[in-house]
Design brief:
This protein is α/β, with parallel strands linked by helices. It folds into two domains: 10-208, Alpha-Beta Complex (DHBP synthase), CATH 3.90.870; 236-310, no CATH class. Helix content is 29%, strand content 16%. It has an eight-stranded mixed beta sheet with strand order 2-3-7-4-6-5-9-10, sandwiched between helices. The chain binds threonylcarbamoyladenylate and magnesium ion.
Length: 311
Amino acid sequence: MGGSSLSRQKLAPTDANLRACADALLAGEAVVMPTETVYGLAANALNRDAVLRVFRIKGRPADNPLIVHVLGIDEARDCVATWPPEAQKLATTFWPGPLTLVLPKAVKIPPEVTGGLFSVAVRVPRHKVARALLAAAKVPLCAPSANRFMALSPTTADDVYPEIGDQAFAVLDGGPCEVGIESTVFDVASCAVLRPGVITPAQLEAVLGHPLGAPTSVERLSPGQYPRHYAPMTPLELVEELGPEDAGITFGAPQNLRQRQLPRDPTAFAQALYTVLNDLDRLAAPALRVARPPSTKEWEAVWDRLRRALG
Ligand code: TXA
Ligand code: MG
């Protein structure tokens, strides 16, 4: 694929750069694109070689399915075999936004995308750079988070590790991600949340008008849900409060330069979590301590990511 894929380029999302990235995608290259949740490593979902390239760059097992990103409901319906009323209700309420719907896949979606499953995960991102790229490329884009397998997801262009960025055509810089943690993944057939996110079960129930199913066989249904995931290199531990010598995340005032204060608000905490963990990870401290957040429902998505980072 020429020299372009050998050197990392951080690009501003100008019209010319978006066109160049769209052309690179259509030629089978990967592009790091910002979304409102985290940065994704995008490729043309209809091109098997491009999809395999994403798995290779990430070091991701082939049975771990990717999310397909599209511009709107019409394009999503093109990727799936059925579009039940539940999908229509959820899509009209939450798209564009951080909700991924799992539905039976259309024939045109190659099995490489879905890890051999008969279902496909689709989502309509709301980040304007992701939307501009989708509009320019005019193909569905599969995009896992732009990190190596099992590492922390990037939420700024600078947090995209060179191992990933250098193998992509470019890193499109869309600024810091507004949501900060990955989308809620919802399986329409079993009516269950497979991965918690900022769109909560209560919000989904309110739209559907009935309670959700239990996420019973998540490991089988959603093979990406490994117990350890989203982890920094430095060992992480939960504590009630940070001591004066500790490095980590605190709700109170920082006691040294290796402590970062986060708000006691689940949305703001989620928004900053990966950025702060990526930053603290570079300190090469022996351990990072995180002050225990509240255990209420609103903190469920944050707790899910913390548990995986703890291992
Ligand atoms: O916010 C996000 O969703 C980000 C941005 C870039 O859009 N993407 C992301 O992708 O987090 P990834 O590949 O890191 O996570 C995809 C998740 C995994 O947990 C995977 O198991 C699940 O979606 N998934 C994908 N296809 C599935 C399917 N057919 N059935 C069940 N789960 C699926
Ligand atoms: Mg990921």
